[in-house]
């Protein structure tokens, strides 16, 4: 692997697929801006005061058109930005090109190898001699993970001189992480230590990444403050739910053109993502079966007319399988062998371990026929019957389509901007310790409010008398913290 | 008013409309039992050990068929029970008769006056010389209110000899409460004091009642422990949402037979109740417009294709108006005057102050034409155009139909039983202080689990490995406390 | 049976349940008028010219509030009217009372025996010495049937002196028909002959009744012209579909209060009625399974995400069974024995032979427990498990609720009025032979147009240029005759 | 224009974009075959007897993957085939390449100019010296049009020596047609005459093309028999409805990535196509407004909760506009000027004259910004606000996505195969005159039946007794001809 960083005429580093797509990317960014009122409002409200002046922000988040609007919002508020994608298939190359040319250092392309992926992550975190980053925008927690693992290795190395051993794990991806850290240790044994000392904090936006943060908080190993953006209502109840309701069928259609009506769809997991997926399939005319471990979510599915069964019950009858659990080992190769010919198997959870790709790839005699990028038919030798796997088991909405649409990402990303501002503004006050925080409800409500006008909505105003009657301020927040929406 | 308590042959007190309906009530109770697996499971699991042995439970909760199954579950676990309804129109007289005859002391009938209502509440709280109640099952908090107001008056009376003055308020209903307390003070100036001292706690199941409890907790005036059953997921996200989705159209149809398809429906408030109502109207083919004060709920409505406007914007174009806010003064007489002829106005929130009935009743020249009980046409003199008001502005699903169906009430009431058990079992441990508590998540999940079998659902089991991967116990609870479902 | 005809002070005959309900009926009729713009427009447009002056109209059609508005529309246009219901459970007694008191001769009450039913039909057809009727409004074809059977018997009697033998059939209901005819033959052996000679025609509004008419046309036995109102688009695609979508859940709720969400519903037949029923159950949160004989309708069901199986496949797993086929022997007693405890079995097709009530009633040891009128639990001795049968297997939406709502019935009944006008106006032109006709499309479109304003709709106008481009008149009709909507 | 026909090694003619995509096309064809059970059944049932032996079939129908399966089915039954697309944007280049390489003479590529389009049509009709075609498969009627116009010109030329004058019309496309005919006249003045004499018939599958045929039948100018495949239930009620429900959002997403939820969508026309489009938008969370000229369709829209207004009422508030009328001049440039910035304007009706592209293109100062192929932003100079037009006003689902999915096209195309077989088998019997026919219902039902197994459906069988009761054969057809489904 000899990946070379390139530079723009202005000297900014980047590595993208094709710089000639920058104009196309710019046009789509301009369209997206109209759909992202929350981010554009941030530019209007905060742009003039340049609150991020001096801040170096590293982002590890799907390098899409919507993310481009986020990046340029951070830049418009004064930040310097370096970026990588958080998934090997999720980059939109025209978006990456436009940003690389115009606004920030980008290291991302669609179809990275895992080694390239971690190289990109490392590049995004490397601010050179001046040091940095000050802030991290994370999605899934890989940037955060690399720093934590790097710092751990540096501590160990300082104490014992030992370097990480990639062979200590059989997780192929983690081997790469350890290799990168090991290789860097000799040239600079304090790189991650300096980073964690400088870091003001991270804002993280996925269920999966947040879970990692809470575990680190529980273990006492969290190295810097974190804001859990995922659990803003305007994130998890919007992007996860309505975003997936939009992008699951989009991915299915672009990848396979299959008619959804009349089919049997199985949705593994009925959390926010699963609810969006099940709704999408049902609305498109499929019959939907849900698998769940949680009796409450299962009962919700039943109340919507969905059947709740186990994967084993339905594996040989269903046409479309979607994993949304955030857990591992959901669809195993033994399940896949029992499926109907050309059953579609895909994942819309953050990580790719929901589907047993390893089991599939190593199944004796299995044959992989690539229909087109991110759409593979795998044929089992015994049955001569095939299944269609999308995006190699990774996030199918980003791998096979363009991810969530701009409007809902504007909600998520406005939370990110607000979280980043909060961390940066409070960097000297000690307000945030090495813990995980959620944004206060009035900011959550503000994010929503910024998105109403675009849709022509008019809010009702509480009278003082009414507000007193239900004991809330006229201007909100309108709900107690535990309210579930 | 000369209401006389009657007695069964066994000597149990009651006051119901028509004891001859007891057989009919019993038949419907038997049907309901089949639909209420949670309650029936409680009987199976806890019945043999008679955990409520010695407990005197007063309930103030719509005296319906479903409540009958709750009451007989409490009785089956060993409790002695006295009951009143928490709404003047919500009693089902055959249910009341069956319970009065067979199981508990009941004071309730459909169409009580407000004075009768509070008389019933007082009766349900009056356990005679032996004292009681030990526990309260509350809905809307009226039983709790009476004790708190009673105790306050007794304190004042002891200190200063002053009795409450009904004329100190112009709330007609509160005047009645004060009158009752005043009249009782002389004969027994320590009645409520003894009550509050004996009381182990209350479990409360509505948004509205819970709000009152939190306010008392905040003010430091809460007199005994309270369990907020409303905020169990299996209560507020089920009964409020799916219950109303069922019972709103039921009430509309029974009261007016109006075709919902093609109509314009306005739902004031898009909380759980509002979500259920809006879904019901939309599914029935109405065009739905939501009014909201909370931008987050407003944005949720928009994502479902509902329009969000103010009442003023649509008052003269809509056909059906439903209030679900839990706030007061939502639809005022000035709104009603501008409505289309025969627009339907109804409330499904707990209290009847969402609709300005007082303004309507006192509007000069207004004419009330009772189509049938709980369905009135009010004609304005200036336009000669009328509106149809359901259940006199009170809970229309209970006033005009039979409330939520058994299955979803089984979820709510199983929470009630579990909460009552928890309070009673811990009565001597000091676990519960004079605060408001919610049930722990594993009990919430248990309630859901008890309802899956009836619907033919099969849960997936986590492997130990998977459970460890997402850091939860194999047996749950499966979600963090803040999870929103 | 000694049924006595009563008379109003004005001398008009009637037989209803309770004349004291007339005021209540009047109030509901007034509400319904606001919801029936088509009929009210007919009064405005045609009332002044009294086109039905001299016409005697007999109707055999569910004596509901909506029908009351139809009757009074016919009367407002100059007709004299006699009426009976076409189903033993479908009369609304307050509607019957109001009409009997104010507008027409009515013979109908809720809960007739079959003998009473046919007595009523005979009364409605008996215009006394002056003769009549001139026109028939029919629903299901029972009035038409009686005349055809009567005439057949009279022919036979004249030729051979033979009278009909009720024992020649084992259809219990048809025995009654033959008895009535036989008993009348002696006193007046030309009654039906005179009737058929005078009759200008019939307009029939159900799929079932229309099928009978086409069979008679095919056999050459049709005695007078018939207009098939059922196949007006504004009838079968509205009343059958949207009416049942409304009234199926209404009937289920009123009869059983059962929660529909989460249940498995089986809809036998996926025609217009079945489509409405399946949509209603699905929207309410049930999982719906369709049974069909017709592959096209089956494929439609699949495209809506419904499962298509046979009754045998699902009989022991479903919770709610609805027959909509217009065929007989759909749910047999052997099916019912295999159902879950308290499974609900009901029919919304015109005749009661879709459910094997005879098999159920005569099943050895079966026990019938009447929960309330039209809601029976039948318990099988072997399993001690019961099923709930609605309206004794007859039209459950009329037996257990109030039938279709006014607005959609306004469409159907405006077609009836127009058909009656057409028959009457052309009575001397020979335009209509002894055949079955449908209304021309421009009248069908007119019916629809009369209902748009009430719902706030605005039509787009074709330009002349556009109309020419698609070769239709600017004013319509807009579609070719075979268009399916 | 110098378009050159190319030849495969086997000597078959073609002109496609890129032969190297043939392998990719083949893979997708294989996937589609699994989704097209109707066509595959035809191969199984009829393939062995080679019924099309000797038949030369020309098709003018979107050259997609699904059409490829149709073409290869015709070939598998013995036909020789030449093909062109019936829309300049609808060809899928990989499908065209695979067919050109493997199965038939193809003249089609995505993004033809209008001149190229008609060149392709001419090529597809030109079977060389041996003559042909024998049969035409048409979509929109352009192949049929060319023959009819060509024959008309040849008649005129023979009589008067006059050649067509392209300047006699100002329809730009028709000028091209006339030019082609004129240019061919001299070299071969009997080409179309020979064609029409040889032609056995055409099967046509769109509403638009069928309308043309009925007009020609009415005028007496139809030159050969035609089967109207569009009005098979399994065509117009499936492909038009469920196909568009699938492919409208697909096209919107691929072209713009816009979030549909929360938006206001306007659907012009509520026929089968409009119903599918409106359903799709509503299900995706948009608020949908319908414009209609036909009161019946308008009332249907209202019953589904859709608002019915005129375009003028909503032009400045809506976000997405879709034309489905089959009429012209629906959205004019003056409408477009009033739209919101970035409103999306698209057409899913057959022809591109629903949207006033000419008015837009020639609007003074208007600026066209091509975001990507088939997605253009048009900016008006006065407002500096832009609208987004998809596929240059042509069929957006084929221009921006891949058209209808395979399963539903299998229904449509099985009708085509059956129609072609019928025409060919009866070519000598005189069964078909120069008129327009629809397929008999039993064939329509057969098409449906062939598609049930794939979706796991099981039909119920009528008993003889039941069949007799409703007077239909046990094996169907199950419905009268006028039945509307």
Q: What does this protein structure show overall?
A:
- Four copies of one chain form a homotetramer.
- The first copy, chain A, is an alpha/beta fold.
- Chain A is 44% helix and 14% strand.
- Chain A has 19 helices and 17 strands.
- Chain A has helices spanning 22-35, 37-46, 65-76, 93-102, 114-125, 142-160, 172-187, 191-198, 207-219, 233-256, 272-283, 295-303, 311-314, 333-337, 357-361, 396-400, 406-425, 441-450, 464-469, and strands at residues 6-7, 13-15, 56-60, 80-84, 105-107, 135-138, 201-204, 226-228, 264-268, 287-291, 307-308, 320-323, 343-347, 367-372, 375-379, 386-390, 436-438.
- In chain A, strands 1-2-5-4-3-6-7-8-17 form a nine-stranded mixed beta sheet, sandwiched between helices. An eight-stranded mixed beta sheet of chain A has the order 11-10-9-12-13-16-15-14.
- In chain A, helix 2 (37-46) packs parallel to helix 17, helix 3 runs parallel beside helix 4 (93-102) and helix 10 packs antiparallel against helix 17.
- The mean pLDDT of chain A is 97.
- Chain A binds chain C through residues 261-262, 282, 285-288, 299, 302-307, and chain C through 261-262, 282, 285-288, 299, 302-307.
- Chains A, B, C, D: This is Adenosylhomocysteinase.
- Chains A, B, C, D: NAD(+) binds at residues 206-208, 271-276, 292, 348-350, 397, 404.
- Chains A, B, C, D: One of its GO terms (cellular component) is cytosol.
- Chains A, B, C, D: One of its GO terms (biological process) is S-adenosylmethionine cycle.
- Chains A, B, C, D: It holds the Pfam family AdoHcyase.
